[in-house]
Write a structure and sequence with these properties.
Layout lengths: L6 E10 L5 H11 L3 E6 L5 E7 L1 H11 L7 E10 L8 E4 L1
Parallel strand pairs: 2-5
Antiparallel strand pairs: 1-3, 1-4, 2-3
Length: 95
């Protein structure tokens, strides 16, 4: 049985999303959903999320990103769908 991800996206989340635990909360949610990829702060104050896996789980993560953890204020989530790389080992926080 082929276990490769069937869908992937890169999300750019803007608003008050740095300094509020957004990356670690995103990592926890993505792991809970069985997704792989990474989350990182960008120099412009946004957060970048690259996620791969089951399309339904990705949809749930995208919905969660639009709200974020307590203390965050999400202004916008821009999602670009792309082909999965299949090279991520779990879901990590990158610095």
């Amino acid at each position: 049985m082929d276990e490769k991800p069937v869908k992937a996206f890169t999300a750019t989340v803007t608003g008050r999303v740095q300094g509020v635990g957004f990356r670690f909360s995103t990592q926890r949610k993505a792991k809970e959903l069985g997704l792989s990829g990474f989350v990182q702060n960008r120099m412009d104050g946004a957060v970048r999320v690259v996620a791969e896996g089951n399309p339904e789980a990705l949809s749930l993560l995208a919905t969660w990103l639009s709200k974020g953890p307590p203390g965050a204020f999400v202004r916008n989530v821009h999602i670009e769908n792309h082909q999965p790389h299949g090279s991520y080992n779990g879901f990590t926080v990158e610095f």
